[in-house]
Design brief:
By secondary structure, the protein is mainly α. The chain has one domain. The chain is built from six helices and no strands. The chain is globular, with a radius of gyration of 20 Å.
């Protein structure tokens, strides 16, 4: 009993930290994009999409005499990529680290990590909303392959936890029919919540 409660507490902490991390990433990304827009800087495609890029979308050619940057040494994986058994999965970077990460990484990769932290997946989203997320992620340096790989690992871990404690939730998480999704979430992610389900407005003090 005590061990089960302890394990549940650990999982709850991990879930809350991931949600907080995803929201803080989103705020850092918002601030970064607003700052770029204020300077009149548009984003460039990180890699060519299905259509040909225009010249102003392409990166300038590197001068022949320009030395290549030195390779970075091995770094720790982002907490969003880690499994539930890894202590680093609960790490919450500082606001300065979030801001630096957003500036350093392609925008699409930051969006992919936000999706991993918040559990955003195609079957949980409004179709048009996920199409926009996927298009932005792919065009600006994110990896759908990595996103789906992390999602598959977490689904396996979650199912093992459900097998150990089958009575913890009355909804089958694998059932993604609209009726079941609305029962679990109220509405698909990206859809305007029905009246009465919207969170209360936050009024600055």
């Amino acid at each position: 009993m005590g061990q089960g409660a302890k394990q549940c507490g650990v999982n709850d902490t991990l879930t809350l930290n991931r949600m907080q991390r995803g929201l803080l990433r989103a705020l850092a990304l918002r601030d970064y994009l607003l700052a770029r827009a204020a300077r009149g800087h548009n984003l460039r495609f990180a890699w060519p999409p299905c259509v040909a890029l225009q010249p102003h979308h392409r990166r300038p050619a590197r001068p022949a005499s320009s030395p290549r940057p030195a390779r970075r040494g091995p770094s720790c994986p982002d907490p969003a990529l880690l499994g539930v058994d890894n202590p680093g999965a609960s790490r919450l970077p500082s606001p300065e680290e979030y801001a630096a990460e957003v500036r350093r990484r392609p925008v699409g990769r930051t969006i992919a990590y936000i999706c991993m932290d918040l559990g955003i997946a195609p079957g949980l989203c409004d179709g048009d909303f996920w199409t926009r997320v996927e298009k932005t992620l792919r065009r600006y340096g994110g990896s759908l392959t990595q996103l789906y790989r992390v999602r598959a690992r977490r689904e396996d871990a979650f199912q093992r936890e459900r097998d150990r404690r089958p009575d913890t939730w009355h909804i089958d998480w694998r059932d993604l029919r609209p009726s079941t999704l609305r029962l679990a979430l109220g509405c698909p992610i990206g859809e305007t919540p029905p009246e009465g389900l919207a969170p209360p407005a936050i009024v600055p003090s």
